[in-house]
Design brief:
The protein has about 700 residues and is an alpha+beta fold. Helix content is about 25%, strand content about 25%. The structure holds dioxothiomolybdenum(VI) ion.
């Protein structure tokens, strides 16, 4: 049974009653504002706080000289060791933190702090022949950095048709609508923080370790979160700074990061360079596939965008090489951004497949059908379910792909029209979770688990799962989430939240229902009846299958024949993601993901300033994301997919797959319209102008 439940907290959100991390006002609340470093590499040699401290309302300026000492665990994230050393690893790192009575005072104080540096030459330009490139042991997600099958070089040389192309994607920034914010308060050695986080348990444990207190003495509350896209997936510096400042001054402190500081402090998608080589017979059947990725990380932490990984999943090619190399530069530390790995990797692979289709004289949908693998190409494992072919066929039917392509690229007034397609994939991830179901004497039920709703509709999805498992109407089920004093649960990330929490909720409700049935009609005790579930053992089962969601996106664009401006006309995606648990919130996730892909293809542009060593576009005035007028038509569909090897609900994740593939479909459509292959995102008018008829 699929539900269409609306978000139970929807009214609170649209009326402003929902409280986000910055909406809490404990007595005596102070405000903090970071002072960013202005060199990209070197040491802090002087700090002058006198002018800042002279501002009425400024209480303190924390620097590495007087900030509380943090204990970073051996496997801890070095970006969280804030204000611990004079060393500068990148521009925009936190050099000092001003604490004041109002945000305005704190900001004025931050502008008045003077920092002196011994600057060193910095290295911030990524090239694919950088001498510092090395092969890491693993890419993000624990994937081996390098995989080879057969003899790629020989098979490639023997191929009838060869494609050898390089694709480049610059840095991309998460920019959730709610900037990273924390309100922190210490009382009797215990810390309470309201944090905009994708997962409070990680924040709780990290803060406990950093400040040397027991985890049970840290309460993290993330009741409502205004998006994250990966940038709130781990503990971020803002919450450490807020807790540090609150301890230092002995009053509650709020830190809401200014938007322009997000790119340097909260992670971003690292730039990637992709060399794609495809060798096929003249019928388009792949014999050889190489996807070699070059990316970078900061000097603080190795993070390797796993962009060659989807090439291990998508197409049958007996001879293959997929590899990652990384260089450590004086740049902000990259991290997760929506579908890390798959999003940039599938841009390159799916553009290359379009180029191969053209070289073979084949329809791009047909080319993909010819390369459908029987088992997962890299591992040889059977797929738990794979309906990419059905997604391609259903999307082509709904889009009238054959008709559009038969009509060819065409002109409509000032506009050149073309259409493109790409495939998408995202792994099925699931983590152990706990949840408790409570039956109350008034006939209602409460589900308790530390899930996080980052705007996705987690409460609606979990209410539906619980109501179905309990066999009661949804209006008798309440869901309590977003606090670390609830049963432990994993983060909202890796498109795994609903599967992970939902599995535990399903188990708890199933267990409770069984207990209630055994009791018969005896009245319930006043405190209710409880059943706690823990899926730690259960999630380990089923690893013999390769589990992924698949999809296909179809796009029509219009390119201004005079200016090269590209406008989206139509965007249609069809997905195979197991059972869709809540149609309303699932559609919203898939549509949102696809819009993010359009944004990546046409608008989002970040440049690393080689002189200053920083991202130049740091706010939403300079870093453009798609707005309503950029998206005239977007449709998300899915096919009914039954998969018994997932979880009791039969669901796959849907948070990230919408983005994957979309940018390639857009760029392939731009090629169809103009004849120009854009291999360097985003599509900019200057890349098209020379080829336009005017
Ligand atoms: Mo997603 S990038 O795993 O939050």
């Amino acid at each position: 049974m699929t539900s269409d439940l609306a978000r139970p907290e929807g009214l609170d959100k649209v009326t402003g009653a929902a409280r986000y991390a910055g909406d809490h006002h404990p007595d005596g609340l102070l405000h903090a504002w970071p002072v960013p470093t202005t060199v990209a590499r070197g040491d802090i040699t002087a700090v002058d706080t006198a002018a800042a401290l002279a501002i009425p309302g400024v209480l303190a300026v924390l620097t590495h000289r007087d900030a509380p000492v943090l204990t970073l665990p051996a496997d801890g994230d070095p970006t969280l060791a804030v204000l611990q050393s004079p060393r500068v690893a990148h521009r925009g790192e936190v050099a000092a933190l001003v604490v004041a009575e109002t945000p305005q005072d704190a900001r004025a104080g931050a502008e008045a702090v003077r920092i002196g540096y011994a600057a060193e030459p910095h290295d911030v330009v990524l090239t694919d022949d950088h001498p510092g490139l090395y092969t890491p042991e693993k890419a993000n997600g624990g994937h081996p950095a390098v995989r080879t099958h057969g003899d790629f070089d020989h098979a490639y040389q023997q191929a009838d048709v060869r494609i050898d192309r390089t694709y480049r994607i610059g840095p991309l920034h998460n920019h959730p609508m709610e900037p990273h914010t924390a309100t922190a308060q210490w009382a009797d050695g215990r810390l309470t923080v309201h944090d905009s986080s994708q997962g409070g348990n990680n924040v709780q444990e990290t803060l406990a370790a950093l400040f040397g207190v027991a985890p049970q003495d840290v309460l993290v509350i993330s009741e409502h979160v205004g998006g994250g896209f990966g940038s709130k997936g781990t503990t971020r510096p803002h919450v450490v700074l807020a807790a540090m400042a609150a301890r230092h001054v002995g009053r509650p402190v709020r830190l809401a990061l200014p938007r322009a500081q997000l790119p340097a402090l909260t992670g971003h998608r690292s730039p990637t360079v992709h060399r794609l080589r495809l060798g096929a017979d003249d019928g388009g059947r792949l014999a050889a596939l190489a996807h070699e990725v070059v990316t970078r990380s900061s000097t603080l932490r190795e993070f390797v965008e796993q962009a060659a990984v989807p090439a291990r999943v998508m197409y049958a090619a007996p001879h293959s090489r997929t590899s990652h190399r990384v260089v450590r530069q004086d740049v902000p530390t990259p991290s997760w951004m929506r579908a890390p790995g798959e999003t940039p990797g599938m841009f390159a692979l799916e553009c290359a497949m379009d180029e191969l289709a053209e070289a073979c004289g084949l329809d791009p949908v047909d080319l993909r059908l010819r390369n459908e693998p029987a088992v997962e190409p890299d591992s040889g494992r059977p797929f738990s379910s794979r309906h990419l072919v059905e997604c391609l066929r259903e999307g082509a039917r709904r889009f009238d792909w054959a008709g559009e392509r038969a009509r060819g690229p065409r002109r409509e007034g000032a506009w050149l029209l073309g259409c493109g397609v790409a495939a998408s994939t995202y792994p099925v991830l699931v983590s152990p979770s706990t949840a408790e179901a409570v039956a109350l004497p008034d006939g209602t039920f409460l589900v308790r688990t530390n899930a996080t709703d980052i705007g996705t509709g987690a409460r609606a999805a979990l209410t539906g799962i619980a109501a179905e498992a309990l066999g009661v109407p949804a209006d008798r089920v309440g869901v309590a989430i977003g606090r670390t004093d609830l049963p432990r649960a994993p983060l909202a990330g890796g498109s795994s939240g609903t599967a992970s929490w939902g599995w535990a909720v399903h188990e708890a409700c199933t267990g409770l229902r069984r207990t209630l049935a055994e009791r018969g009609t005896a009245p319930l005790p006043a405190e209710g009846l409880r059943h706690l579930a823990d899926t730690t053992g259960a999630v380990k089962a089923g690893r013999e299958y390769a589990r992924h969601a698949f999809g296909a996106q179809f796009v029509q664009v219009a390119v201004d024949a005079d200016t090269g401006e590209v406008r989206l006309r139509r965007l249609l995606g069809v997905f195979a993601a197991g059972r869709i648990l809540n149609e309303r919130t699932a559609r919203s996730q898939l549509v949102g993901g696809m819009i993010m892909g359009v944004s990546m293809a046409l608008l989002e542009h970040s440049t690393m300033d080689r002189e200053f060593g920083d991202h130049a576009e740091r706010d939403l005035a300079a870093y453009h994301v798609a707005a309503n007028a950029d998206i005239p038509s977007v449709e998300a569909h899915w096919i009914d997919e039954e998969d018994a090897h997932l979880n009791p609900m039969g669901s796959k994740g849907i948070g990230e797959i919408g983005t994957v593939g979309t940018a390639a479909a857009v760029v392939n459509a731009v090629h169809h319209a103009t004849g120009v292959r854009v291999r360097d995102l985003p599509v900019r008018p200057e890349l098209l102008l020379d080829a336009l008829p005017g």
